[in-house]
Amino acid sequence: MTTPLVDLKAQYISIKDEIDSAIQRVLQNGQFILGPEVKAFEEEMAAYCGTKFEFGGGKDEMFQMW
Asked: What's the Cα-to-Cα distance from 11 to each of 2, 7, 8, 16, rounded to whole Å?
């Protein structure tokens, strides 16, 4: 028997309603780039990282932090 390093299915199930709701909001408003969900993500990530500013664009900025 092997033990998985990360159980992504269990993680998804634990926040399924939140994830599904966010996906529905993006699909319904059609703003896949620079929409309100991206703005909210950037603000929450900046707060989590203890910075004043959002990242401004996407994953490239997140990778530059590390």
From this structure: 18, 6, 5, 8
Contact 62, 45 (CB under 8 A): yes
Q: Read off the pLDDT of residues 14-33 as tens digits, 9 standing for 90 and up.
A: 999 999 998 999 899 888 88
- CB of 43 within 8 A of CB of 54? yes
65 contacts 49 by C-beta, under 8 angstroms: yes
Average pLDDT, the chain: 81
φ, ψ for residue 24, nearest 5 deg: -60, -40
Contact (Cβ atoms closer than 8 angstroms) between residue 54 and residue 39:
yes
For the question of whether the overall pTM of this predicted structure is more than 0.90, the answer is: no
